[in-house]
């Protein structure tokens, strides 16, 4: 099976699914595949997208312990394409949306989760810098002060707190996440498609450009911090499931 699949129903809703269970880590190829899919769907009779993932978790971002993800510039080029795509997206966030996975969830227009869902911008905990445009998207949904706290501390929030913060728009039982996301997408698809695209373009005006500017800065900090002793310690501590011992170098 491909890493990304798409199926369009009679209701003009496409279910776009990531297939890298259980954590659905992404890389350049996967984000590019998502962007390709979005762009192909906007040339079809699709009017709205449900973004979901196979397995326990929505997306845990990039696998920092693998040592294989070094092309963050290319990754963010593809991420900008997601934000520039024209169709509205509802993310079905089962399990965890962690790190860049939170960035991916926030690229959608709306999010559905359950009390068991978990969200975290946990970059500071392993000694890294946030990415995927979270500089822009996180304050847009939770406010600047809450975004600062979440980014500085890297703390995880459960579905109920995420809903209270505005990080997710609907909170349902775990088994109903996809159905609710699909119902929301179908409601979007029932409106006049040219109107929805125009309104969405107005409401998200300047967003792709802001994401481009933000990811340029985020990438530079990530490349710098990747070479620090604190980052190496943070990755080791994560792999060993212990608290990191940072020394500021």
Topology:
Elements: E1 4-8, E2 13-18, H1 28-41, E3 48-53, H2 72-84, E4 89-92, E5 96-98, H3 100-107, E6 110-113, E7 118-120, H4 134-142, H5 144-153, E8 156-158, H6 159-165, E9 170-171, H7 177-190, H8 193-203, H9 207-225, H10 229-240
Parallel strand pairs: 2-3, 3-4, 4-6, 5-7, 6-9
Antiparallel strand pairs: 1-2, 7-8
Helix pairs in contact: 1-2, 2-9, 3-4, 4-5, 4-9
Explain what the structure shows.
This protein is of the alpha/beta class and 249 residues long. The chain has a domain at 4-173: Alpha-Beta Complex (2-enoyl-CoA Hydratase, Chain A, domain 1), CATH 3.90.226.10. The protein contains ten helices and nine strands. The strands form two sheets. A six-stranded mixed beta sheet has the order 1-2-3-4-6-9, sandwiched between helices. The protein has a three-stranded mixed beta sheet with strand order 5-7-8. Helix 2 runs antiparallel to helix 9 (207-225). The longest helix is centred in the C-terminal third of the chain and has 19 residues, at 207-225. It is globular, with a radius of gyration of 17 Å. It starts with a strand and ends in a 9-residue tail after the last helix. The mean pLDDT is 95.
Quick description:
This protein has helices at 28-41, 72-84, 100-107, 134-142, 144-153, 159-165, 177-190, 193-203, 207-225, 229-240, and strands at residues 4-8, 13-18, 48-53, 89-92, 96-98, 110-113, 118-120, 156-158, 170-171. With 249 residues, it is an alpha/beta fold.
């Amino acid at each position: 099976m491909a890493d990304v699949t798409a199926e369009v129903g009679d209701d003009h809703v496409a279910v776009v699914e990531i297939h890298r269970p259980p954590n659905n880590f992404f890389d350049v190829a996967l984000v590019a595949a998502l962007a390709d899919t979005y762009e192909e769907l906007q040339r079809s009779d699709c009017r709205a997208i449900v973004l979901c993932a196979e397995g326990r978790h929505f997306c845990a971002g990039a696998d920092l312990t693998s040592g294989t993800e070094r092309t963050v510039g290319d990754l963010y080029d593809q991420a900008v394409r997601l934000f520039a795509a024209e169709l509205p997206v509802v993310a079905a966030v089962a399990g965890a949306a962690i790190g860049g996975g939170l960035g991916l969830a926030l690229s959608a227009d709306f999010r559905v989760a359950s009390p068991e869902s978990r969200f975290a911008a946990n970059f500071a905990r392993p000694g890294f810098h946030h990415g995927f445009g979270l500089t822009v998207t996180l304050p847009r949904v939770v406010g600047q002060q809450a975004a600062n706290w979440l980014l500085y501390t890297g703390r995880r929030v459960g579905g109920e707190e995420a809903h209270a913060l505005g990080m997710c728009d609907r909170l349902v039982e775990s088994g109903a996440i996809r159905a609710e996301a699909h119902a929301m997408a179908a409601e979007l698809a029932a409106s006049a498609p040219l109107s929805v695209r125009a309104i969405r373009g107005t409401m998200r005006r300047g967003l792709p450009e802001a994401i481009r500017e933000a990811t340029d800065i985020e990438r530079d900090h990530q490349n710098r911090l990747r070479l620090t002793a604190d980052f190496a310690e943070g990755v080791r501590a994560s792999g060993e499931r212990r608290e990191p011992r940072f020394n500021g170098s």
